[in-house]
Design goal:
76 residues; 5 strands
Amino acid sequence: MPNKDNYWTQKRPDGRWESKREGAERASKVTATQAEAWDASKNFAKQNDGEAILKGRDGRIRDRNTYGNDPYPPKG
C-alpha cells in the first residue's frame, strides 16, 4: 500500500527529472535538473510530514529524508 506522504525524485524516460507522490500516476513537478526535483520532493514531504526519496540515474536509492514524526532512537 503506497504511503501518499512520500515523494520520489527520479529520472523520466524523456531525460528530465520528476518529483512524484508515491502511488500517483502524474508527477507533482517536472524539472530539468535532479537538484531542482530533489528540492521539490523535500518541500512536498516537509509539508505532509512524509519522506523524500532520491533515485539516482541507475535507479537505485541514493538518499532519503524523513520529516515529521521520526523518533530517535527507534523503538524495538
